[in-house]
Specification:
By secondary structure, the chain is an alpha+beta fold. The protein folds into 2 domains: 48-121, no CATH class; 131-361, MetI-like fold (Orthogonal Bundle), CATH 1.10.3720.10. The protein is built from 14 helices and 7 strands. The chain has helices at residues 21-27, 30-47, 60-64, 70-77, 123-131, 135-161, 165-179, 183-211, 215-222, 231-256, 260-268, 273-303, 315-326, 329-361, and strands at 15-16, 19-20, 49-56, 88-93, 97-102, 105-112, 115-121. Helix 2 (30-47) runs antiparallel to helix 14 (329-361). The longest helix has 33 residues, at 329-361. The two termini are 54 Å apart. 24% of the residues are buried.
Length: 362
């Protein structure tokens, strides 16, 4: 009996240089293309200038001289726009391009034929121009908090592996407490309860030292004042303490991934436990957990938005202020989401590049 022809039941694969066409389609990062297209669309909306009106080319000399004259103010007033006499004119290209900065509003003027065309940012552009002020605070808060969280997490991770009963249980208590409470609640508790309690404790210790006659050292502890500790500093402390617990588990897993024989070999060569941990174990452990540390940093950048509940003027808080004052909620929060998406996608790509580099070195 003749063999029956085989009928393919799966997707048709077209071989091309040893790699099937269907496999290429399946492995192509369509999700990334979609994110790029969304980002391009939003950025075009944000950075597209809106035409306002035309003014006479006679104002070219006025603009070149950086002068806001009454005639120029009258031209803007004729189009229902109030231009302040203190507005700053920047010459981008003499006789061709100028920018007028009037408070938080920017006007762009371009020479076109026999007239000058006046543009301004659209509603999304105005939202971005307002919200970007908080970008510096967001980045500073995330970087500073993550730096302290790394130190705290490393100490707690070593404590989790310590044979000392006190340090082991203290580290375990810290990790379990922090991981058992929502981040938002922890931010409120640490910033508004924990930090003031620590400051009061330091002040009380300073008073005790003063009673003992140690005035110079007492002055150091009594110098702390709750009113002088900004909400930004409290937010950094809250994020550091919170993420320190999660990083502790990452460091613990990284250290445990190193064979125990390496510690024994280091000790047999005369190294102390701290020396072996510092020079032999930790460098390898950190290398193993670098991708996880990078992913946690991306998560912290997103969770830094929670510090807006403390009135820290990050991009989330500034967006809320803009939306509340202009009632342009769509423009404010679309812009905010795009800014966070841009930061997290770029950081995620850096983490993936780091992972590929580490795999290539194996």
């Amino acid at each position: 009996m003749a063999d029956k022809p085989l009928i393919p039941t799966g997707p048709l694969e077209i071989e091309d240089g040893g790699i099937s066409f269907s496999k290429r389609l399946n492995e192509f990062p369509w999700w990334f293309v979609a994110i790029i297209l969304i980002a391009i669309w939003v950025f075009l909306i944000i950075f597209t200038k809106e035409f306002l009106f035309n003014i006479s080319s006679e104002f070219t000399n006025v603009l070149n001289a950086d002068q806001v004259t009454e005639q120029l103010q009258a031209e803007f007033a004729a189009n229902d726009i109030t231009l302040s006499s203190n507005a700053k004119i920047t010459i981008k290209d003499a006789d061709k391009k100028w920018e007028i900065e009037d408070g938080r509003t920017n006007y762009f003027i371009y020479a076109e034929d026999q007239s000058l065309e006046v543009f301004s940012w659209g509603e999304y552009g105005q939202a971005f121009d307002f919200i970007k002020i908080g970008l510096k605070v967001t980045i500073q808060t995330a970087l500073t908090a993550y730096g302290f969280a790394l130190i705290l997490g490393l100490i707690a991770g070593l404590g989790r592996l310590s044979s000392n009963m006190f340090f082991n249980n203290l580290a375990r208590l810290y990790v379990e407490l922090i991981r058992g409470i929502p981040i938002l609640v922890l931010i409120f508790f640490i910033a508004l309860v924990g930090v003031p309690a620590v400051v009061d404790g330091l002040n009380a210790f300073g008073v005790w030292l003063s009673d003992k006659g140690v005035a110079p050292l007492a002055a150091v502890f009594t110098a702390f004042n709750n009113q002088n500790i900004s909400m930004n500093a409290r937010a950094i402390v809250a994020l550091s303490v919170t993420y320190g617990a999660y990083l502790a588990e990452i460091f613990r897993a990284g250290i445990q991934s190193i064979e125990h024989g390496q510690m024994e070999a280091a000790r047999s060569l005369g190294m102390s436990y701290p020396q072996a941990m510092l020079h032999i174990i930790l460098p390898q452990a950190v290398r193993n957990v670098l991708p996880a540390l990078g992913n946690d940093f991306v998560a912290m950048v997103k969770d830094s938005s929670l510090v807006s509940v403390l009135a820290v003027r990050d991009i989330t808080q500034v967006s809320r202020l803009y939306a509340g004052s202009t009632f342009r909620f769509r423009e404010a929060y679309v812009t905010l989401a795009t800014m966070y998406l841009t930061m997290t996608v770029l950081l995620s790509l850096l983490v993936q590049a780091l992972e590929r580099r580490l795999r290539s070195n194996d």
